[in-house]
Amino acid sequence: MPRKILVTYTSKYGSTRKYAEWIASALSADLFDAQRIEPKALSQYDVIIYGGGLYAGGIAGVKLVTQNSCENLIVFTVGLADPNTTDYSAILNKNFTPELLAKTKFFHLRGGIDYKKLGPIHKVMMAMMKGMIQRKPESEREPEDKEFLNTYNSKVNFEDRQTIDSVITYVNDL
């Protein structure tokens, strides 16, 4: 009997939605914006894949899956930071109970940013981040800090369809 798979997401600027669409297509899964799915509908699925953008230490919309029981839960986050060099433990610990952390599989994907499309709050947050980085002595700046300053106030896109391969392989191996 085939498994029933749901891919649901919260996306403010589009990168998370794009990854969700790619994943749902590759897995022949149902796809819903998290704002358009009733929490009780989650129980109809064998596997739930939730995607949310990273904002100020939070995962957008993640309460849908943290406050409702999900049998096989997979979460992917989307942010600007390089997943190969970023420690996400503080974000995960802030958003998930220890019990849920232990039984959830996480993937971290890289999105993009177009400063012209940012809302006022996100513009202020990015300006604050720029100020924090600029106050660091240059010798203490990480490569990502330098990249942030070099691309500040422009449009950058790190979306990569191939990065969903690990998600697809994991789900197919369940």
Task: Kindly list the characteristics that best describe this protein.
174 residues; alpha/beta; Rossmann fold; 2 domains; 6-stranded mixed beta sheet; two-stranded antiparallel sheet; 7 helices; 36% helix
What is the CATH H-level superfamily of the largest domain? Flavodoxin domain
Name the beta content range.
Answer: 15-25%
Structural class: alpha/beta
Helical percent range?
A: 25-40%
Low-pLDDT residue spans: none
Overall strand count: 8
Overall radius of gyration: 17 Å
Organism: Anaerotignum propionicum DSM 1682
GO molecular function: FMN binding; menaquinone-dependent protoporphyrinogen oxidase activity
Protein name: Flavodoxin
Domain Flavodoxin: 6-138
Overview of the molecule:
This is Flavodoxin. One of its GO terms (biological process) is heme biosynthetic process. There is one protein chain. This protein is an alpha/beta fold and 174 residues long. It folds into 2 domains: 5-111 and 158-173, Rossmann fold (3-Layer(aba) Sandwich); 114-156, no CATH class. The chain contains 7 helices and 8 strands. The strands form 2 sheets. Strands 1, 2, 3, 4, 5 and 6 form a 6-stranded mixed β-sheet that branches. Strands 7-8 form a two-stranded antiparallel ribbon. α1 (15-27) links the parallel β1 (5-10) and β2. The chain is elongated, with a radius of gyration of 17 Å. The two termini are 13 Å apart.
